[in-house]
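Handout, page 2. Input:
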Amino acid sequence: MGVGDVSKRILLGRKLRSSQLGETLLPKRIALPVFASDALSSVAYAPDEVFLTLSLAGASAYAFSWKIGIAVAVVMLTVVASYRQNVHAYPSGGGDYEVATVNLGRTAGVTVASALLVDYVLTVAVSVSSGVQNAGSAIPWISRHEVVVAVVLVVVLAAMNLRGVRESGAFFAIPTYGFMIGVIGMALVGAIRASGGNLPDVASAKDTIIPASGYPQAGHLTGLALVFLLARAFSSGSAALTGVEAISNGVPAFRKPKSRNAATTLLLLGLIAITMLMSIIVLARTMGLKYVDDISRLRDDNGNPMPRGFDQPTVMAQLSKAVFDNFTPGFYFVLAMTGIILILAANTAFNGFPVLGSILARDGFMPRALGSRGDRLAYSNGIIVLAVFACVLIVAFDAQTTRLIQLYIVGVFVSFNLSQLGMIRHWTRHLKTESDPSARRRMYRSRMINTFGLCLTLTVFVIILLTKFLAGAWISILAMCVFFALMKGIRRHYDNVSRELAIDEEDHFLPTKVHAIVLVSKLHKPTLRALAYAKATRPNVLEAVTVASDDATTKALVQEWDDRNLGVPLKVLYSPYREIVRPIVDYASQIRKANPRGVVAVYIPEYVVGRWWEQLLHNQTALRLKGRLLFTPGVMVTSVPFQLHSSEIARQRARRDLDRVKAGDLRRGTVRSGGQTPPRRQVHR
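Output:
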């Protein structure tokens, strides 16, 4: 086993057989943190965005916070109910993409796929950047190196997911459940203290917010100005819905019964997320929280501006510090779990993006390499591609959540809308053929849920476009268009290749003539082996060809060739500019042109070496020549290997790997209990 194999084994673990795929399936208790971490982590920053937006009109606008929270909760419940229909109707893991493709057509499916791919990349970038910024509030060194830390964390998350869904899920389950316990526990403690009349205010309760330029106090906002402010706050709070769709894309990863387990997990996700979201918003409003996007608009209880370098704690930090003012470990626990869950929220994308990429690859809209499972039965190529895209975004936007968040949630609502419309078409189509009254009533109920969901998500989507388009949402839309065009181009390429490769009548005809060429640079053992192999194929014409780039060397070769009388003519191609590749390609092309229905077979002697650095010293001309000849119609290229002594090193390495005892060998009977390999069975013929 080489150094690369050892490193890979340490990082990823032992390889898994394809038959072990069932062992990687997830129970509900692990599937919930795996697929719900994104949606649950949104609770950590969605309230922040609501309060930041409302603060534009001063602290009095916070009176609308709980109403906005209820509106977001209603949309989330509707979306959860709609996706419960999806996982039962389309359990293959295609999710919104499959729903849109089957019911609305291929173009709608590709649109949904492009939106989801962009959203998954943004999920990783936003979640990791947000987590790093939270950690930077406690650790100054991180705040000075946010981009580097964020990129490193993305790489670590990718490595964990390359080990397999089950292993990464078990690792991420503890902090996800810890975050739930921390937030719900904080809400319960706050409710108990409020009922006893001893719930303290947060540290910012006595501060004053100066409305932003162009915004009067909320009490003086009327008409369109008030509607626009509330719509903008609602669209920001709708970030809490991101990640809900991930479960519908991950149904194949659940244990049986897959659809039922996925639907149950989806319901648990919705109830937990809404409970935490409303708890945070109500607590923040009750405890007098003040939270602004620009510190210059914040004044202390004496009316003075905040000091230079003042770092405003997040909503979660302010609430937990006040609620647990007499229990410091509780404050640190909530803060630590919040920071961790924000980073681990990217795990949802690392489970959704590769699965969606594999389905798109199967349908010809993505490179087929994305459809291959790695050593640990994860879609390794998709994981790596997602990590690369996320790192590019983090570097481009300097790991700033406030800049990245403007690009967020556009894609997910595109998929929401097309998915709901697709499900309406799905139920309408089935109602035409269903005669059972109970089944028809169930379908009517499901269609009503999807219709109501479409109305809500379409409204939210319009609000998001109106309030966030110029703030950065246009970048997401542009990225979706790029992905859409890219996937269409890939599918067009695969279709063209399929048409070219289709068998027709001409493919049944044999070539009229085979003209074999053996390339000669020196007269040595590899050359003689190539000549012998070429003779064994019995071509119509066989000749050896050399390129004369040096007169003395060429004359010596011709003389030795004549002396040995090999029975094969040696043709010399003169090269006045000392080129090797071009004369051979031109000569092969001329032969093919003279006999269009014939074949030119070129035999190239090559050395087989055992060390990587030896490969750099040999076969470079052969490599360039093969690269050129492969593009020449009617020319077949054959490499004739000659093993040098150093190739024994590679053979011994392969033999050691073959003889090494592996996990499961004892159970399969390929080794004895003492670790010895049993004698091979002799086969007599």
